[in-house]
Write the structure tokens for this entry.
Amino acid sequence: MKTDAGHTHGTAGATSEPPSFLSIFSLFFGISAVTIGGGYVMVPVIQRAVERKGWLPEAEFYDIFAAAQSVPGPLALNSAVLVGGKVAGARGFAAAAIGILLPPFFAILLVASFLGAADEHPVVRGFLDGAFAVVPGLVAALAFRMIRKRSWTVMRGILSVAGALALVLAGTWAVPVFFGIVVVARLTERKEQ
């Protein structure tokens, strides 16, 4: 639905106000505080949370996720501020940014003060090893959901495989190769339409 600020959220047919600063802040603070593994781990958690709250449908979230990947900066922060901005304008942007940044900021301060003493403690080491083992599964689940939602053509499949292979082989040229892939994909999509 559309709000007076032009943002869409909620369920069809219902009229509601954009989420409050505090509700956006607390959502992103909570996600950031308990998620270990960076942006690609946080993104599926953010997606499920905003969809469950009725703020954004899944397809719209994936459009925001694509935009978040195309701008410089941490993926979790980019995704959070774009979601916050979409559902509540500048207020949502600020709430999401503060919420997503505070937990790692304080965690870094805390960890830095205890790093030397706890690094090789068996419980700490076991926790970190376990968290590390979960990250590939979360990333794979996100990739699988995105791939499944995409409408595929033979050309899209070929370009996706070729692009992934080019990025793997590019080494230090990965950034220009990435932008080259984007240009080729966009030109190919226009020709198909």
Remarks:
- DSSP finds seven helices and no strands in the chain.
